[in-house]
Amino acid sequence: MLRALLSATRSAKPDDPWDLAGKVGQLESAHRAHCEQPDMLLVRRAYRIAEQMHRGQARRSGEPYITHPIAVATILANLGVDTPTIAAGLLHDTVEDTSYSLEALRGDFGDEIAVMVDGVTKLDKIHLGSAAEAETFRKLVLTAGRDIRVMVIKLADRLHNMRTIKFKKRPSQIRIAEATKDVLIPLADRLGLYVIKRELEDIVLETLEPEVFQRIKEHLGSESDRSRQVAVIAPQVRRALREFKVAARLLDRPRHPYSIFREMEKHPGTGPADPPRLVIVVEGPATDCYAALGAIHKVWKPVGGKFRDLIAAKKFNLYQSLHTAVAGPGGTVIEFLIRTKEMHETAEIGIVAGLRQSGSNPVEVQLPWLQRLLDWQHEVADSGQFLDSLRCDLADQDILVFTGDGEQLLVPKASTPVDVAYCSGPSKGHRLIAAYVNGEIAQLSRPLRDGDSVELVLTTEQPYGPSKQWLDHAKTPEAQLHINDWFGAVDDLDSTGELPVIPMQRFEDELKAGKNRLWRSLIARGRGLSGEQPLHGVASSLGYPDLDSLYLALAREKLDPDELAEKLITTVDRY
């Protein structure tokens, strides 16, 4: 099929009123510029197949449909992704919208590209919005867990669709913009793809609040004070850096419309404002970032409460920088972001920077937050509870707290000492008996604020364990899950008498190890487990009285997880 399509494409020489050749040329130039080892033959093969399969299809704008895959692939190329991802971007709609089957695509391009296209196709079938069923979010997380590049392609796809949203009817514009705001923008943030996140935010604002957006744009277009302030500040910054022997580039980083809108929401009654914000990109190691910070603070007085060390406390999406604000000339507040070259790249393209690292396997590259969601996905039987966990984890309201061990932690806003205790795992959380916040004894239910210092008091005596009241105190899904696991294990021990008497911590660890072994086998087969109900029948058929006994057998290698996964899949598919 591939040979026939390539031959047909070469022989055809249609007119090109939409400048497809120019658009493909821009795609190829971007890929060469941002990829160390581009395979242009593969890109051209993928384009020819996509162009042939989409021929005759048009978008609402009147453009040939192929302009959309080209645009998606060009967005990906400018991020610096590898060639297979570019090819998948070109082909991402062929299986869903044309006669080109997934089997044919796999035969023409191999498993790697076929898996990505299949993943994007499945994501397209998920209704993404605030009213989406909880189970669809499980599917989204499972798909992302198999190959993170699928989510990058999906975000590029949504970005181009948002760029052309004006061709949709008004109700569709609102629905798509709301879904983008609720799910895809937070996911772009979690992946560290700020170049995509910023543009999506601005288009969503323009779609949902057109008058506010236009007001902010007019302000940005007429602003001259800010430019004059930056022109005065920049030479002083460069002199200070030279004095501290720090080689660095200085970049002006004005706010984009949505970030200005957020500030207006925080301070009702104020108009658009964009005070100076500069990025210092040091040429040397991370220690030079702290030297640059010292240089800035020597020239201008720091503004209290504005310093954040996000190098020591790395964010969920790999972002690292020092943040500070100072009182500049005339009392003007100046914000600085200080980072290395590597940190600056990651600040812009996030997970793609990790994918570009030499020798990394894209299928194995995962962010800690995604791995955490995958763990929750099989630990939480109830889809509604998992949805609450996902929404909490996607919430863009982190605070920075300091522990008694000198560690810096980013936790969700309104977290309590209970949440901080469980950040390091159940072995510490279960032993919590008291906490000091900023040097004073505090209730375990006390909501923490940004910059709080938290010292945990842990017991070493047996017996120990959480209180059920902690479920009301805990705000993070991680803490709630560990507490529920504890009481679930205790209830099983008290009621059945079937399980061997082992220390509670070891029991809990073995249960989790068994669950993980089964989950990895299911993931390898492209499957998940939305609830444990199907597993009960399988456990009974294998002679295990309950799931805990089954998980213990998996943990102790008395039961093969691959055989169990196959039996479970067969049982589920039968019904």
UniProtKB/TrEMBL annotation:
GO terms for molecular function: hydrolase activity. Residues 397-458 form the TGS domain. Coiled coil: none annotated. InterPro entries: Beta-grasp_dom_sf, HD/PDEase_dom, HD_domain, NT_sf, RelA_SpoT, TGS, TGS-like. GO terms for cellular component: plasma membrane. SMART domains: HDc (SM00471), RelA_SpoT (SM00954). Residues 65-162 form the HD domain. Belongs to the RelA/SpoT family. This is Bifunctional (P)ppGpp synthetase/guanosine-3',5'-bis(Diphosphate) 3'-pyrophosphohydrolase. It comes from Glycomyces paridis.
